[in-house]
C-alpha cells in the first residue's frame, strides 16, 4: 500500500496501521447547521488515508503526500490554538483537541494522502481531521465513538485552525454508511442512515465542482449567521430550528421592521433577516420531505426538492453565484431530475440528480455551457454514497 511504503521511507520504520476517512457532499439542508437544524450529507468514495504510529516522547510529526513541504515536526505540549498555519493545523488541531479533552495522546508519526478535491466544498479538511482522530482513537485505545470524534475534530477546526464551521462535515466523514445518506439533527446529533441506493434505481448524483471560489464568500457566512441569530432573537426562540414549517408565514409576519428595529445596529436589516429565516425554516422542511421520499423509495421525486432548495439559496439566502446557477439551469434544461448548489456557495460544487443513462449527456451540456460562457472547465464526477471513517489495515 502506497501510504505504508511512503511512511516507511519517511520515518524509517513501519506504521502501526492505516485509516481512511471520506470527503462528503451535502444532499440537502444548507446553512441549517448553525441554526440547530437538519442536514443530509453522504460520504464520497474519495478519502484521506493516513498511515500512523504512536510516539511516547511528545513529538508529533506530520507529512502529506499532496503538499510540497517536508515533515512538519511539533511538540504536543506546545500546541496552542491559532498558533499554526498551513495544512498541518488540521491534524495538529486534532491532537490538541484530544489532549485538551484529557486524552493521553503522547505523540505520533503520521503520513497521509488524500483523493478528496481540496477547496471544492467537499470537506477535504474534515477528512484530514477525522482520519487523524480515528487513528489516534484506535492506537491510544481512547474508546471514543464516531460522534465524539467528530465533535473533537470540529473543535480542532473551529478553535485551533480558526475556521468557523458547523458539525456536518466531521459527522458525515465519521458516521456515514455505504448506500445511505446521513440524516443528522445538529441540535443533539441524533441521526439516522436513510437508504439512498442510487445504482439500484438507475440514478446518479453528479458532483459538479465549478473550480471557482469567490472572495465574496468570506464575510457572507458571518453575515448570514448574524442575520439568523437576530431573526431567532426577534422571534423569541433560541434558534430558528424551533420554528416549525407550518408557522413560517406567521413568523415572517411577526418579523416586522418594528420588531427588528429593537435589535442592535448596524446589523442585517429586516428584509434580509426575513429572507434568511424563510430559507432556514424551508430548508429544514426540505430535509424532512427528502427523508420521506427516500423512505418511500421515490428517489426521483427528490430532484425537484433539490431545485427548490437551490432557488432558496439563490434568492433568499443569496449565496449562489453565476457558475452555480449555470450548472443548475443547464442541468435541468438538459433533463436532470433536479440540481442545487451544495456547501457554502459563492463557488465550490453543485449536485445534480440524473437518470444513469442521461448522466453523460447532462455532464457534457454543463461543460459546453461553461466553455461557452468562458468559465474554467468544471470537474464532474458521480457521488456514490460511501462508507465513513474506518481502519483499512
Ligand atoms: P474543503 O474542506 O472544502 O476542501 P477547506 O479550505 O476547508 O476546503 O480545506 C482545504 C485545506 O485542507 C487545504 O488548503 C489544506 O490546508 C488542507 N488539506 C486538504 N487535503 C489535504 C492534503 N491531502 N494534504 C494536505 N493538506 C490538505
Ligand atoms: Mg473544510
Automatic annotation (TrEMBL):
Residues that coordinate or bind Mg(2+): 125, 157
Single Gene Ontology MF annotation: galactokinase activity
Marked site (Transition state stabilizer) residue numbers: 24
UniProt keyword Disulfide bond present: no
Pathway: Carbohydrate metabolism; galactose metabolism
Top EC group: transferase
Subcellular location: Cytoplasm
InterPro entries: Galactokinase (IPR000705), Galactokinase_bac (IPR022963), GalKase_N (IPR019539), GHMP_kinase_C_dom (IPR013750), GHMP_kinase_C_sf (IPR036554), GHMP_kinase_N_dom (IPR006204), GHMP_knse_ATP-bd_CS (IPR006203), Mevalonate/galactokinase (IPR006206)
The GHMP kinase C-terminal domain, residue ranges: 291-371
Pfam families: GalKase_gal_bdg, GHMP_kinases_C, GHMP_kinases_N
Residue span(s) of domain Galactokinase N-terminal: 6-54
Main location: cytoplasm
Binding site for substrate: 30-33, 221
Catalytic residues, chain numbering: 169
Segments forming domain GHMP kinase N-terminal: 92-175
Residue positions binding ATP: 64, 119-125
EC number: 2.7.1.6
UniProt keywords, alphabetically: ATP-binding, Carbohydrate metabolism, Cytoplasm, Galactose metabolism, Kinase, Magnesium, Metal-binding, Nucleotide-binding, Transferase
The reaction(s) this protein catalyses: alpha-D-galactose + ATP = alpha-D-galactose 1-phosphate + ADP + H(+)
PANTHER family: GALACTOKINASE-RELATED, MEVALONATE KINASE/GALACTOKINASE
Family per record: Belongs to the GHMP kinase family. GalK subfamily.
Functional description taken from the UniProt entry: Catalyzes the transfer of the gamma-phosphate of ATP to D-galactose to form alpha-D-galactose-1-phosphate (Gal-1-P).
Name under which the protein is recorded: Galactokinase
Amino acid at each position: 500500500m502506497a501510504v505504508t511504503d511512503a511512511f516507511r521511507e519517511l520515518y524509517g520504520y513501519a506504521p502501526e496501521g492505516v485509516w481512511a476517512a471520506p470527503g462528503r457532499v451535502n444532499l440537502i439542508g444548507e446553512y441549517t447547521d448553525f441554526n440547530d437544524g437538519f442536514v443530509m450529507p453522504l460520504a464520497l468514495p474519495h478519502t484521506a488515508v493516513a498511515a500512523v504510529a504512536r510516539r511516547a516522547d511528545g513529538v508529533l510529526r506530520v507529512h502529506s503526500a499532496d503538499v510540497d513541504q517536508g515533515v512538519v515536526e511539533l511538540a504536543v505540549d506546545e500546541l496552542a490554538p491559532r498558533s499554526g498555519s498551513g495544512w498541518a493545523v488540521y491534524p495538529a488541531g486534532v491532537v490538541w483537541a484530544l489532549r485538551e479533552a484529557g486524552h493521553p495522546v503522547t505523540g505520533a508519526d503520521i503520513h497521509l494522502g488524500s483523493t478528496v478535491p481540496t477547496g471544492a466544498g467537499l470537506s477535504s479538511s474534515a477528512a484530514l481531521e477525522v482520519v487523524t482522530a480515528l487513528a489516534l482513537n484506535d492506537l491510544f485505545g481512547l474508546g471514543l465513538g464516531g460522534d465524539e470524534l467528530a465533535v473533537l475534530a470540529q473543535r480542532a477546526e473551529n478553535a485551533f485552525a480558526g475556521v468557523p464551521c458547523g458539525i456536518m462535515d466531521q459527522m458525515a466523514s465519521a458516521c456515514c454508511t455505504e448506500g445511505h445518506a446521513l440524516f443528522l439533527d445538529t441540535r443533539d446529533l441524533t441521526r439516522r442512515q436513510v437508504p439512498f441506493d442510487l445504482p439500484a434505481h438507475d440514478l446518479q448524483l453528479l458532483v459538479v465542482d465549478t473550480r471557482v471560489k469567490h472572495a465574496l464568500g468570506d464575510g457572507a457566512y458571518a453575515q448570514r449567521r448574524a442575520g439568523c441569530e437576530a431573526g431567532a432573537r426577534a422571534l423569541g426562540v433560541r434558534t430558528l430550528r424551533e420554528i416549525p414549517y407550518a408557522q413560517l408565514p406567521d413568523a415572517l409576519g411577526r418579523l416586522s421592521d418594528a420588531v427588528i428595529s429593537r435589535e442592535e445596529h448596524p446589523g442585517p436589516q429586516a428584509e434580509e433577516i426575513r429572507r434568511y429565516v424563510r430559507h432556514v425554516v424551508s430548508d429544514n422542511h426540505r430535509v424532512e420531505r427528502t427523508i420521506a421520499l427516500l423512505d418511500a423509495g421515490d428517489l426521483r421525486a427528490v430532484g425537484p426538492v433539490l431545485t427548490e432548495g437551490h432557488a432558496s439559496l439563490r434568492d433568499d439566502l443569496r449565496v449562489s453565484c453565476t457558475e452555480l446557477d449555470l450548472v443548475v439551469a443547464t442541468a435541468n434544461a438538459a433533463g436532470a431530475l433536479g440540481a442545487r448548489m451544495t456547501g457554502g456557495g459563492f463557488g465550490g460544487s453543485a449536485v445534480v440528480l440524473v437518470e444513469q443513462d442521461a448522466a453523460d449527456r447532462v455532464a457534457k451540456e454543463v461543460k459546453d455551457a461553461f466553455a461557452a460562457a468562458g468559465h474554467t472547465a468544471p470537474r464532474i464526477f458521480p457521488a456514490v454514497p460511501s462508507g465513513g471513517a474506518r481502519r483499512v489495515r
